[in-house]
Specification:
By secondary structure, the protein is α+β, with helices and mostly antiparallel strands. The chain has two domains: about 190 residues, Fructose-1,6-Bisphosphatase, Chain A, domain 1 (2-Layer Sandwich), CATH 3.30.540; about 130 residues, D-Maltodextrin-Binding Protein, domain 2 (3-Layer(aba) Sandwich). The chain is about 30% helix and about 25% strand. The strands form four sheets. The chain has an eight-stranded mixed sheet with strand order 4-3-5-6-7-8-9-10, with helices on both faces. A five-stranded mixed sheet has the order 12-11-13-17-15, with helices on both faces. The mean pLDDT is about 95. Bound molecules: 2,5-anhydro-1,6-di-O-phosphono-D-glucitol (AHG) and manganese (II) ion (MN) (2 copies). One manganese (II) ion binds next to strand 5.
Length: about 325
């Protein structure tokens, strides 16, 4: 392996080559270093004593896993210690937390995505999004409102996947690259300028919610299931990992369409997934890789946030399929 190592570009070298602001590099560094720590704990599995629930609920009323709490605390600690960070918002925290007075960056994160998969040793991940502190706002006045910026304003976004290998996918608005965590604790670039295939025959949705979806989504999935005999004229394969981060990684790797649509189980919620911690960062990655993302009415990154924990219906992946889902919704907008 050693002969390859010299040819490999580390994350820091790649960001430097791309002339990314050193302050932003330091924020990314804080996140990825913490993720190495989280990866270490996950590797220990039951031996780390971290399986099971933390016997408390987060602000969204969801039972937290011990590792949800620990990952959140680790990220919180390292980001707040970083002078470039003006504030953080986490899926696991009720309110945003102001950071350092000289910081110019805001970070939102889902410390552990797919946490129902921890105890069964299936891939989970950390998702992050980096926004700029608006010029008009001094860091000392950072509040929930400071974070309410549409996704197209993101400066960077990415995830660290804890699977058979630890992989970072990141964009700073110049395409998407991927890195593998080496045995020496360095993230080395393995892919650059990733492209999501435009067409796909693979979809991901939790089919058990079918009866709760709106009519256009029901019709779309019915047509998908008809395969080559239906109006779409092709046979589809289905995958559902229940870790969005793993589904997005698969889509960045080989294409596909991921859907967590609105459903009427709880009509007060616009969807299950969260705009600021899941919808926006994943949409940024997918769009930077030539794919598309939508809430069925418009690109997710055009959705104006009004609430830090806002939910959003998510359709993302291969362009042709996302546009097809949009079309089903437009032609029946009265549904
Ligand atoms: P989290 O673990 O951060 O709460 O997110 C889980 C999300 C997402 O990763 C996944 O796609 C979805 O919830 C799975 O939901 P179901 O269990 O309803 O399928
Ligand atoms: Mn999540
Ligand atoms: Mn989570």
């Amino acid at each position: 392996m050693d002969q390859f190592k010299n040819l490999m570009l580390s994350l820091n070298q790649a960001l430097e080559q791309a002339q990314v602001d050193p302050q932003l590099v330091s924020v990314v560094d804080s996140i990825t270093n913490t993720c190495k720590n989280i990866a270490e704990r996950l590797r220990g599995g039951a031996l780390s004593g971290l399986y099971g629930s933390a016997e408390q609920e987060n602000i969204q009323g969801e039972v937290q896993k011990k590792l949800d709490v620990i990952s959140n605390d680790l990220l919180k600690q390292s980001l707040l210690a970083n002078r470039s960070v003006a504030g953080i918002a986490s899926e696991e925290e009720e309110n945003v937390i102001a950071g350092n007075a000289e910081g110019r960056y805001l970070v939102t994160f889902d410390p552990l995505d797919g946490s129902s998969n921890i105890d069964v040793n299936v891939t989970v991940g950390t998702i992050f999004s980096i926004l700029a502190l608006p010029n008009s706002d001094p860091a000392s006045t950072v509040t929930n409102d400071t974070f309410l910026q549409a996704g197209h304003k993101q400066i960077a976004a990415g995830y660290v996947l804890y699977g058979p290998s630890v992989i970072l996918a990141i964009t700073t608005g110049q395409g998407v690259s991927m890195y593998n965590l080496g045995a020496d604790g360095v993230f080395y670039q393995t892919e650059d300028q990733i492209k999501v295939p435009e067409h796909t025959q693979e979809f991901a949705i939790n089919m058990s919610n079918q009866r709760f979806w709106q009519a256009p989504m029901q019709r779309y999935i019915n047509d998908v299931l008809l395969g080559e005999e239906g109006p779409l004229g092709k046979r589809f394969n289905m995958r559902w990992i229940a870790s969005m981060v793993a589904e997005v990684h698969r889509i960045l790797t080989r294409g596909g369409v991921f859907m967590y649509p609105y459903d009427n189980r709880d009509p007060s919620k616009a969807g299950k997934l969260r705009l600021m911690y899941e919808g926006n960062p994943m949409s940024f990655l997918i769009e930077q890789a030539g794919g598309a993302s939508s809430n069925t009415q418009k690109p997710i990154m055009d959705v104006e946030p009004h609430y830090i924990h806002q939910r959003v219906p998510v359709i993302l992946g291969s362009k042709e399929e996302v546009e097809r889902v949009n079309t089903y919704h437009q032609s029946t907008s009265s549904d």
